[in-house]
Amino acid sequence: MADKIDIKNVAKLASIKLNQEEEDRLKNDLSMIIEHFDALSKMDLPDDKISIHPLGMSLNLAEDIASKSLTHKEALSNAPESKDGQFVVPPSLD
Amino acid sequence: MMNNYKLPISKINQLFKNKELKPSELYAETFERAAITESIIHGHLELFQEENLKKALNSDERYEKGENLGTLDGIPIAIKDNINISGYATTCSSKMLSNYISPYDATVITRLKNEGALFTGKTNLDEFAMGSSTENSAFGPTKNPWDSSRVPGGSSGGSAAVVSAGSAIASLGSDTGGSIRQPASFCGVVGFKPTYGTVSRFGLVAFASSLDQIGPITNHVEDARLIFNSMKGHDPRDATSLIESKAKQPKLKNAKIGIIKELMEDGISEDAKKEVHKVAKLLEAEGHEIIEVSLPLTKMSISIYYLIAPAECSANLSRFDGVRYGNRVPGSTSSEMMELTRANGFGPEVKKRILLGTYALSAGYYDAYYGQALKARAMMKKEFTDIYEDVDYLISPTTPSDPFKFGEKSDNQLEMYMSDLCTIPANLVGMPAISIPTGLSSQGLPLSVQIMSPSNTDNTLLDFSESLESLVAFTEEPVINGVVS
């Protein structure tokens, strides 16, 4: 199973840059954990029931009515960079 | 005489009302206690002493006029640093959020403020609540008040340690796989995880949304009940918050209690097993019936949990991308900035769990891992629902062993994960569970038992636990810095 983990691809999907030492260590750690999952993945379980909410409840969504929330200033208060009331990010393309 | 900071909250409230003690005096007492203990324990990441002194004096005035807000008025409570308090840092013990100042209160904070509670500060945790020892905190570990060479448990290790050490009357923790109960057990205090959805998660930094639940850590069961009832209730800002629902309540007298066979086998220490048998005997003598029950899927709970929790964490922690909050590492493009920011901001355990979750959700593996875990979770829920047709409560050790030494399990990830074996089932099926200290091991370290009951029977479980607490009569306290707490 260890060989199956393409750690570079998983890190890319997770948007985390790993150095070589981390890649080696995490590949090893993840392989060990995934091996532990083998018994579960091989269990014969009925397909008709899954549990996402622990009590099986549907979500209680709020009414679609505007209510008090963070101000513009508060929402930007922790931004690493902002300008003219907006979040600033580097360009999306080189 | 018991120090004021170890008294039940109802008793302190009575002293306030009788003008025998002032909230500001108790507040000062807890900070005196912090001055003695914090240099060893490191339970608080931040102390609010000066800022909240004025609030303590306001509380004095309210009692003076007989206008106190509630039983919690003037009670110093510590808050785990993944719960937002407006105007204060919420770091989640992560470099990623070391500069983050919350612009809003979590719903639980609003509700405790409405009751007049005071906050001592923010407490240490494993980074983003991922861990069982606080060794994963970016700001250094918390030490166990009973033996500083041992871990306090985690992830709410700081919250449990400060209550045990007496630098707060009570604290809030969050519990995703045992993060309230396991540290409470290691520190010899009470830890209560309510039914999923009874306490709002709004303002709690999410780890695994279908498992996370806020709850109290206290010296006494009655304190846990008081804080739980002050916080609970529907919150429109949390879509998973329950609207009060009725459930058949378990019996308080002549109850039937099941010892979970699978949590009394290999991997559980003799001390932990003995404690369950000791408590079972005490309960039997009170007229309760004790039987052994089998819940075979509990053996799979570590695997189920370590697929579901990382999968949910990989989605929840995607918000830490250096754009809206948290620290940023510059990059030439947005995607490079995000990859570098997350590489620099997250610690090793958080990275591991994000990658594990990403892998389990990725194309080709979803059905074999995450999909299978969801099916097993449904089966496990059925096992518990069926067993509660026959028994009122379930009992098990809270932890497989007493507190372990620093570094003892950090090189063996699976052994570390196994320390949540007994607590994870309650998160997977949503039921309430409580850890109650019951004695000391041969090494003088705290031991405890865990009691569980069906979902939405929280107050009955607390009533039952209070009667068990009085049967056990655990009154030991740790000695820290040469001073008993």
Quick tags:
heterodimer; A: 94 residues; mainly alpha; two-stranded antiparallel sheet; 4 helices; B: 485 residues; alpha/beta; Amidase signature (AS) enzymes; two-stranded antiparallel ribbon; 15 helices; 38% helix; 13% strand
What does this protein structure show overall?
The complex is a heterodimer of chains A (94) and B (485). With 94 residues, chain A is mainly α. Chain A has a domain at 2-41. Chain A is 35% helix and 4% strand. Chain A is built from four helices and two strands; from the N terminus they run ααααββ. Chain A has helices at residues 7-13, 20-36, 38-41, 72-76, and strands at residues 82-83, 86-87. A two-stranded antiparallel ribbon of chain A has the order 1-2. In chain A, a hairpin with a 2-residue loop joins strand 1 (82-83) and strand 2. Chain A is flat, with a radius of gyration of 22 Å. The model of chain A has no long low-confidence stretch (mean pLDDT 90). Chain B is α/β, with parallel strands linked by helices and 485 residues long. Chain B has a single domain (4-252, 390-484), classed as Amidase signature (AS) enzymes. Chain B has 15 helices and 13 strands. Chain B has helices spanning 9-17, 23-41, 49-64, 107-114, 157-165, 181-187, 221-231, 270-285, 301-316, 334-345, 348-361, 367-387, 413-418, 424-429, 458-472, and strands at 44-47, 76-80, 118-123, 170-175, 190-193, 213-218, 256-260, 289-293, 393-397, 433-440, 446-452, 479-480, 483-484. In chain B, strand 7, helix 8 and strand 8 (289-293) form a beta-alpha-beta unit. In chain B, helix 2 (23-41) packs antiparallel against helix 3. The longest helix of chain B has 21 residues, at 367-387. The radius of gyration of chain B is 21 Å and the shape is globular. The N and C termini of chain B lie close together (12 Å). Chains A and B meet through helix 1, helix 2 and helix 3 of A and helix 9, helix 10, helix 11, helix 12 and helix 14 of B.
